[in-house]
Amino acid sequence: MTSLIVKNGRVLDPASGLDEVATILIGDGVIKRISGSRESLREQIIDATGLLVCPGFIDLHTHLREPGREDKETIATGTRAAAAGGFTSVCAIPNTNPVIDSQTGLRFIISRAETDACVNVVPLASVTRGQCGEEIVEFGDLVYYGAKGFTDDGHPVMNTEIMRRALEYSAMFDVPILDHCEDLLLSDGGIMREGFVSTKLGLKGIPPLAESMQVARDADLAEYTGGHVHIMHISTAQSIEHIRRAKARGVRITCEATPHHLTLTDEALYNFSTAAKVNPPLGTANDRDALVSALADGTINCIATDHAPHTDIEKDQPICDAPFGMIGLETAFPLLYTRLVLTGHISLQSLVDKLTRGPAGVIHLEPRGTLTEGAPADIVLINLDKEFTVGAEPFFSKSANSPLIGEKLCGRIETTIVGGKVVMHNRVFA
Ligand code: DOR
After folding, report:
1. Whose CA is nearest to atom 2 of ligand 1?
2. pLDDT of 42
3. CATH number, domain at 336?
4. Of 52, 296, 366, 426, which sits 20 to 30 A from 378 (CA to CA)?
5. Are 43 and 82 in contact (CB under 8 A)?
6. Which is the closest atom of ligand 1 to the Cα of 278?
7. Whether the model pTM is above 0.85
8. Are 298 and 338 in a shared domain?
């Protein structure tokens, strides 16, 4: 039985090539039919006239902070922030307290998501126990209990032998290693990107090599082992070159870029703004432009937010003491639509592709990420013409550490549907 109809919207699904005004019939949580005209008055109808209708976005990189730092975010608040940003699936980064490195941890995430989450939560596990970088986790066990990928994000895997073994397990179980690339000997307590701005501000810099040398190392390890390495939050032009070359050799390497690395530069730190302090640090205009070109030419597989909530108390410290990270779920689409699509740098199709089919392919979430018949009814409705000021209405996230507060952006998420249920409509939750 059909239970929901979304009619008259511009249905844009890069995965199936659809881009036309159409009506979507939803029942039992899946898409039953997409047609040009059909509708039934007996069912709940959402009139999407003038709106863009896309597959719900998928974020491979969300810090939900639960368990352990519920003062920053919880599975309940983080998934509401996701829905408010049009994301219908988020991957939970395991750098919680305790770290998700055991079946008990995974079972906690899965059961808490069942009761508290309003979007799909995809559990990830760490690569090393406690993310201490010394002892590899029980890969097979964790895959069995639901881990869809492995990452020590927040920290790199410095030990090359452990990374080699992790990639061997990746090949064995066909799960990606999500790789935070940072040579700690080179980053060495730096605050921001090393260069002109860091010198002017007198802040210790992180050289771009700290990232790109590990990208090169892990591309070689993926090639040697046959494992799948997914490079997280790439931020330097040199990293892109390494990835481009490895892809050309047929290495199983994918990568993501964040909305902030695609739109901001190290100049955002000129006023010592702790909100712009992220790891990896914001790069130069040259890096940002290289990232945008790599997004347009397909070298970058997907956009991922690295939504990293922190409390005001922590972020109000002097810049050297404040933690790295900014929130991103609620601003990702409008920021990229305003700064990259409306300015002609990338197409709307490409932006939607990198938020839907791209991430689904990296972590094997298909048939999510498309609006084909039989796929889960995860859908987002967007008013592309609506302008709003970031922060004028409170964030749904528990934290507000965004350098975008006060910015005027275009493209407002109107409605988010998860598994055929409307979870958010006009900023009101079901
Ligand atoms: O900026 C960041 N914040 N980068 C990371 O890798 C970790 C994250 C966090 O957990 O706050």
Report:
1. 325
2. 57
3. 3.20.20.140
4. 296
5. no
6. 1
7. yes
8. yes
Please write the tens of the pLDDT for every residue from 282-319.
999 999 999 999 999 999 999 999 999 999 999 999 99
Strand partners, 387: 410
Please check the confidence at residue 2 and state whether its pLDDT lies above 70.
Answer: no
Distance CA(126)–CA(102), nearest Å, equals: 9
The residue written with tokens 């249920």 in the block is: 421
C-alpha Rg value of the chain to the nearest Å? 21
Choose among 60, 89, 13, 15: nearest CA to 359. 60
CA 185 vs CA 155, 190, 207: distances in Å: 12, 10, 11
Question: What's 420's domain CATH number?
Answer: 2.30.40.10
Ligand 1 pocket, Cβ-based, cut-off 6 angstroms: 63, 95, 153-154, 180, 278-279, 306, 308, 323-325
CB atoms within 10 A of CB 129: 15
Angle at 275 between CA 57 and CA 82, to 5 degrees: 20
Nearest to 396 by CA among 413, 378, 376, 377: 413
Number of domains in the chain: 2
